[in-house]
Amino acid sequence: MKQRTLKLIGAGGAVSLLALSAAHADDPVSLTIVSWGGAYTQSQIRAYHEPWMELNPHVTIINDDGSANALAGLRAQAQAGNVTWDLVDMLPSDAQLACDEGIIMPIDHDAVLAAAPDGTPPTEDFLPGSLGECFIPQIVYSTVLAFRPDAFPDDNQPTSIADLFDVENFPGRRALQDRPGTNLEWALYADGVDPDDIYDVLSTPEGVDRAFAKLDTIKDHIVFWTEGAQAPQLLADGEVVMATGYNGRMFDAIEVEGMAADIIWDGQVVEWDGWVVPADGPNIDAVMEYLYFATDTQRLADQASFISYGPARASSAELVGEHADLGIDMNEHMPTAPENYFAPIVLDNDFWVDYGDELRERFANWMLQ
Amino acid sequence: MAQADAGVAPLSMGRPRKEKLVTADGMPLKRALQRAERRRKLAAFLLVAPLLAFLLTVFIFPIGQMMWRSVDNPQVVNALPRTLEALRGWDGQELPEEPVFAALHADFMADADRPRREQAIGPLGIRLNYEVSAARGAISRTARNVASFEAPYREAFLDEHRLWGDPNLWRIIQREGRPLTMSYYVAALDREFDEDGRIVQRDENRRIYVNLFGRTLALSVGITLLCFLLGFPIAYWMSVLPMRYANLLMICVLLPFWTSLLVRTTAWIVLLQQQGVINTLLVQLGIIADENRLSMIYNMTGTIIAMTHILLPFMVLPLYSVMRTIPPSYMRAAKSLGATPFTAFRRVYFPQTLPGIGAGAVLVFIISIGYYITPALVGGQSGRMISNEIARHMQQSLNWGLAAALGTMLLVGVLILYWAYNRLVGADSLKFN
Amino acid sequence: MGANGAESGFVRFDRVQKSYDGETLVVKDLNLDIARGEFMTMLGPSGSGKTTCLMMLAGFETATFGDILLGGRPINNIPPHKRGIGMVFQNYALFPHMTVGENLSFPLEVRGMGKADREAKVKRALDMVQMGAFSGRRPAQLSGGQQQRIALARALVFEPDLVLMDEPLGALDKNLRERMQYEIKHIHNNLGVTVVYVTHDQTEALTMSDKVAVFDDGKIQQLAPPDDLYERPENAFVAAFIGENNTLRGTVTRIEGDACTVKLDGKAGEVVALRVNVEGEGAKTTLSLRPERVHIAPENGRFPNTFDGRVEELIYLGDHIRVRVSLAGNDEFIVKVPNSTSGRRISVGETLRLGWAKEDCRALDPS
């Protein structure tokens, strides 16, 4: 039933959608939106939620910081037949799993999302490869390497991912995330594999062995982190000399908290993050209205004023301005800025959905050895 | 003798019939008693009913459900009924013939016509991916294009994805084409099925769970022991102190209960890390060299320190409550009988604290065996426990079947250990009566 | 000191003082000799210092000042387990995790005795208290009286010269208590062991002891054999504490030899009493008179002291009748009347003529 409504809306396009929203504009609606919490949720509140609630006084938005366990939550709600979440912020690989399970809705992007100001349809405006069957991208973020300049002599500062694996020239402990993703890609990249070929190599048993062999060379120097906040903390405390981490967290620690660290953009592992709509959610119509607004060109550009993640739309890039509180030009801190985007590795979600279980087991085994 | 030939009811013959006891209003006494008893039993049941209902809903039912999930295997049966029918009689060696692929095509087509929530192909891909990597990709790609397939289907499927030409995938479909499976338990024991369907060990570099179970057990035993060594003197001291000092000390022991996980974790990090308070102090005192700072966090040491800290009250409280009830006269009696203070402690005091030690050890052990947040935050790679893997499969990989199998094994393991403890130490014999 | 010292002072407290807080003394300048084989009871109300003395003797408390000697040797610095003193505790302190046999075997084991010897001694000790069949039981499976016997056997099994008992019968009911009193006394007689017994029950003390030390306020008020204690109390506390006692207060007006004349308070008359513990003429005094020594309607001139009393209450007690009389301003004055057939009937409200001898009325310290 809702499936059909959605198609109808899609066929009617944006105009009729707005008309529809006008039809029951007065019914109070409260939307539960699940996201990652912290600075990230704050940026969404300021860029999306507050403007939307101002335009639509009948809408109340409730924030739920449950994204870390969203997959489990979505499945539990679907199986209990009691879906309480309206909109969930999650990673595309998780979105693909949820989509295969049928617990989130497939999205006809051109039908339900706003076109760019120049009329480019969403499927062409969103960055290539970012759209998923059930997934609406919001931001580009990347996992980067950061280091403490004071840990190395001035004439020998690390500059590349290869330096992460070079404990002779750059001694000291390194903090890596306790999962295979990013780490295996970097091991191959540092071992000389071209970024475009990384997943082809990683699909073969020999490639996997090669990646682990490279990781073995620094194993005794690794501190593993689990939560995103741990990486900059370890750097700030001087526990490690290098740490991998999300570029937004690193930006916050360096620019806002004043941590003495530099980011290496070489080999940044680029990934998306975005919205999914739970199937059988309580307020599908209201959510679709909100999504149309919150993913348009201006709103995505606005979010970059609050956090250093890049907008997922090409048309938003030129609208990115200064940080709302710090007054820093955010363009140079975007993962997608040309000077940063010189050797990106785009995380292949299909690869990780298919091979993730096996590689995670292997990685866990490797960590235990 | 007389009773032997009395027939049907020899026992009732012992007393003449007219003597049957009745209440004042003529009701048989037995029935009156039963009625009174029934009311009492009903009242007793009503008193425990809320707790019973609570336990059933939040404890028994979820555990039952978890155990059910560890063997529940509906995905293949739901998605591929025709294919499974056609696969019957396949010898498992060569790639199946055209009829099987035609049935597969029919299953895919039938699935596309179902309402989305009832579609079974997506879950099938996720399920098969647990057994063979890339199966999900093969199935979802096939599902997108299957409408355009034309006979002969075998070629069409093989063209779409190489996995359809892998007899191993078909063996898995055939094997998992049953509503119940043991494959989650097989995986949880670091084992897999080989080509002939035998259960064999996995490649060495993919074995994790058995090792983790062992480590979890060792860590829990170690933490329990440490809690005992640290908790016993504290509990003893508290039990001999006047009440108000004992209460003060008790507050110190309970403090970790009242601080949030975040505060505690931060405190440990500040204390234990290489640039932390303890290391800096040791360096400044010249006990260790600056370049040899100790690693006390993000490894097994971190897990042990942090968990001992949290779980210490669970050891101290039962010990204290037992020690408080041991009158000082026992020690005095032992001494007056000629025992040295040490012998008196060992032979008389210590055995009487055994119920407290037993209760505390069982509590600490069982809680620590299921801990996962603290190990994840301060345990690094070597301080992780099996629960971290269970949590990961619950929350991230969404492989609830495997999580359930691991959880069930943990539960059964704990029950076996408790049973063994009961047999060896004898929880009952500790009550002294 | 040798054998002859042990005869008179097997256990000796020599100017012993004890303070817990450094401000008040719970035991004040205690001097006490206990002969070998003697059954000595420390009797007193709670808080009188008797238990503290026992604990100092056992070694669980240390004397703040003074010496405690055992067999002539000072034992102040000997830890309890080396003193070789048997002890029976108030709540028996039988080890709950051991069987009866193991409890008895314990003191022998820690002395390194061989298994066969131990078993023989344990059996003998259990037979002595008629508990031979209970060797395999746990203490919790025994009744209070049985536990008490085991505690006694355990304190005696290693054949100590001295056994201390800290209110051992306090938790038993009356009948059992009386039976145990005789048994303990019997065992004491048979074994010839020295016993120091602490109790607050005067009947117990009088029944069992060779000598009783009456404690009050950290001091021994009187040390005497039981009959002396009852018949000849030396001060008002002992008189009041041991047995039933009528008290009259007054001032000494004249002293003649061992007699003194006392003018009762409230102008209630004059009494001639035995001078026991009065400072001199003009001093305040407490007169103590046992109820059974008061005679009803005596012949004229038989007693120096005769008073009229009004009967307030009669209590029938089988072998005798307690008559409460209001006499010389004291309406708690008790007279015991033997229940004999020749006795006259007494009724409430009637006035009785009462008299007593000088020797039975002891003039003691004021209280």
Give the SSE map.
The complex is a heterotrimer of chains A (369), B (433) and C (367).
Chain A: H1 2-23, E1 29-34, H2 38-55, E2 59-64, H3 70-80, E3 87-90, H4 92-101, H5 109-112, H6 122-125, E4 136-147, H7 161-164, E5 174-177, H8 183-190, H9 198-202, H10 205-216, E6 222-225, H11 230-236, E7 242-246, H12 247-256, E8 262-276, H13 284-294, H14 297-303, E9 310-311, E10 345-346, H15 349-368
Parallel strand pairs in A: 1-2, 1-3, 5-6, 5-7, 8-10
Antiparallel strand pairs in A: 3-8, 4-7, 4-8, 4-9
Helix pairs in contact in A: 1-13, 2-14, 4-15, 8-10
Chain B: H1 29-69, H2 75-79, H3 81-87, H4 98-112, H5 121-131, H6 135-145, H7 153-160, H8 167-175, H9 183-188, E1 191-193, E2 199-201, H10 209-240, H11 243-258, H12 261-272, H13 277-284, H14 300-324, H15 329-336, H16 341-369, H17 373-378, H18 386-395, H19 400-424
Antiparallel strand pairs in B: 1-2
Chain C: H1 2-8, E1 11-18, E2 27-34, E3 39-43, H2 50-58, E4 65-70, E5 73-74, E6 85-88, H3 100-109, H4 115-128, H5 144-156, E7 162-166, H6 174-191, E8 194-199, H7 202-208, E9 211-216, E10 219-224, H8 226-231, H9 236-241, E11 246-256, E12 259-264, E13 270-275, E14 284-289, E15 295-296, E16 305-316, E17 320-327, E18 330-338, E19 351-356, E20 361-364
Parallel strand pairs in C: 3-8, 3-9, 6-7, 7-8, 13-20
Antiparallel strand pairs in C: 1-2, 1-4, 4-5, 9-10, 11-12, 11-14, 12-13, 14-20, 15-19, 16-17, 16-19, 17-18
Helix pairs in contact in C: 3-4, 3-5, 4-5
What does this structure look like?
The complex is a heterotrimer of chains A (369), B (433) and C (367). Chain A is built from 15 helices and ten strands. By secondary structure, chain A is an alpha/beta fold. Chain A folds into two domains: 2-139 and 273-319, D-Maltodextrin-Binding Protein, domain 2 (3-Layer(aba) Sandwich); 141-271 and 337-368, Periplasmic binding protein-like II (D-Maltodextrin-Binding Protein, domain 2, 3-Layer(aba) Sandwich). The radius of gyration of chain A is 21 Å and the shape is globular. Chain B folds into three domains: 1-69, no CATH class; 75-181, no CATH class; 209-431, MetI-like fold (Orthogonal Bundle), CATH 1.10.3720.10. In chain B, a hairpin with a 5-residue loop joins β1 (191-193) and β2. The longest helix of chain B is centred in the N-terminal third of the chain and has 41 residues, at 29-69. The two termini of chain B are 42 Å apart. Chain C has helices at 2-8, 50-58, 100-109, 115-128, 144-156, 174-191, 202-208, 226-231, 236-241, and strands spanning 11-18, 27-34, 39-43, 65-70, 73-74, 85-88, 162-166, 194-199, 211-216, 219-224, 246-256, 259-264, 270-275, 284-289, 295-296, 305-316, 320-327, 330-338, 351-356, 361-364. Chain C has a six-stranded mixed β-sheet with strand order 6-7-8-3-9-10, with helices on both faces. The two termini of chain C are 41 Å apart. Chain C has two domains: 2-236, Rossmann fold; 244-364, OB fold (Dihydrolipoamide Acetyltransferase, E2P). Chains in contact: A-B, B-C.
